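fyi for ur records
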Amino acid sequence: MNSLIAILGLAFLVLLHEAGHFYTARLVGMTPRKFYVGFPPALVKTRRKGIEYGIGAVPLGGYVKIPGMHRPAPSDVDAHFGRAVQEAPQLHGPCERLKRLVDEGDFESAAGVLADIGRTSADAELSPGTRKAVERGLDEIGDALGKDAYWRQRTWKRVFVIAAGPGTNLLFAIVCFTILLVFGPGQGTTTVSAIETGRPAAQAGLQPGDQVIAINGKHVDYVGMFEQINGSEGKPVRVTVERDGRPVTLPPVRAFKDTDGRYRLGFRPRFEPVPPHVAVWDSLRLTGEITKEIGGVLVRLVQGSGRDQISSPIGIVRGSSSALSRGFETFFWVLGLISLSLALLNLLPLLPLDGGHIAFSIIEGIRGRSVGREVYERVSVIGIALVLVLFFIGLSNDLGGRTGG
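which gave:
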């Protein structure tokens, strides 16, 4: 059951990502053609206001079809209608005219010729496979010629729509962290809440209400307090507390090794509620720290190390399932981390990732014209190869028993 919930959690994050693209595209006038929960083929579908909504047969994530991601090219005509021309020679003339108009950039006239191809093909005797290819070509090229096609939009609209996917994942991570900070146990302090009987803290005379101010003479905060204790590795620890307004240094004691392998003294700190505005700021700060760490992993990977920090979906589901076994609070922390990781991965400037589309949109905006289709295809091959390398590194870690990041 834990694995199923973990898989659904990952699918939800992908669906959230696609929903970001979908609603932002509608907001700026790029009407998406399809929005599926899950991946096609569709089990159930309906059409409203020109958009096909459906539930896909592959129950993971979601799918959004934004019209005209690329400028139409003459090669598209051959790819979609080549077989039809062989079976119905009367299509040769219209297809050649369409290729010429597309190459010249006369898209309004090209749309008219495309309509002629649609009428001519409807009356032609075509095999079922060829007719299906023609119908797909009419849809794909028609979308690319439309005024709401993605490639025809202003640069800021294109960047906005593409960035909305990872942006939604980023926002979800921040919201997750904020909610957990507000409704979780609270913010840890250095004030002692309770003492475990028979443990080193009790032997040293630590009392509830004491505020730990230093360990072995070093001033500590909440995190540093436990780092110093764990770092002692069982060597004598001298704790200084503030008691009744006065500093008191307790006798040295040795920390014990707990079941999780960390050294502890045997006391619990007091937690205080986190105000919402503080939680938001802490969430932003935490997001920045995690982003920096993930960036460091990628840099180390390029330098030839850090590959043990990469996970595949198998490792992500395994880690999420393990977190769920420790409680929903831990699971949602991990879900927020995965959402943040998805956002950062998609922002890498590689095609077909979102970051690659953003980079090309900016380049085309600066040039004032579209980049050739062949450039897109070559860069996409490189991007896909690099993504596959990351996937197989993560998969080898997961199957080999190493824990990815």
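The longest strand covers residues 34-48. thats all i got for now
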